[in-house]
Amino acid sequence: MNISYIILSSLLGIVLIYGIINTRVSLKYETEKEIFDLHTNLASNYIKQTLEISYEFLTYILFNILYLLLMGHVKLKKKQH
User: Fold this and answer.
1) Closest CA to 44 of 23, 20, 58
2) Is-contact 44 34, C-beta < 8 A?
3) What is the C-alpha to C-alpha distance for residues 61 and 66, in angstroms, rounded to an integer?
4) How far is CA 72 from CA 6, 7, 12, 62, 65, in A?
5) Which of 9, 49, 60, 76 has its Cα between 20 and 30 A from that of 66?
6) What angle (nearest 5°) sits at the alpha carbon of residue 66, between those of residues 60 and 70?
């Protein structure tokens, strides 16, 4: 059961990393346009907030994977004794 959670969490993490990279590229182009168009400030703030939330969620997923791996390791040690 833990293996399926680890696999699903890993896939979600990969999708989230892709989203973070995509958002960082969007932020780069929005901040470059800021020189020419002053109305992109709202878009830049939205992208920065999205990145912040994505980083926090990725941290949660990584801790979740680590927890599942450690609990699986503990269960294996208990079965061996």
Assistant:
1) 23
2) yes
3) 9
4) 10, 13, 20, 15, 11
5) 49
6) 145
Contact (CB, 8 A) for 30 and 40:
yes
SS3 13: helix
What is the value of pTM for the model shown? 0.73
pLDDT digits (tens, 9 = 90+) for 28-43: 877 766 555 556 677 7
Contacts for 31 with CB less than 8 Å, ≥ 6 apart: 40, 44
Task: Give yes or no for a contact between 8 and 68, defined as CB atoms under 8 angstroms apart.
Answer: no
Within 10 angstroms of residue 7's Cβ, the number of other Cβ atoms is 11
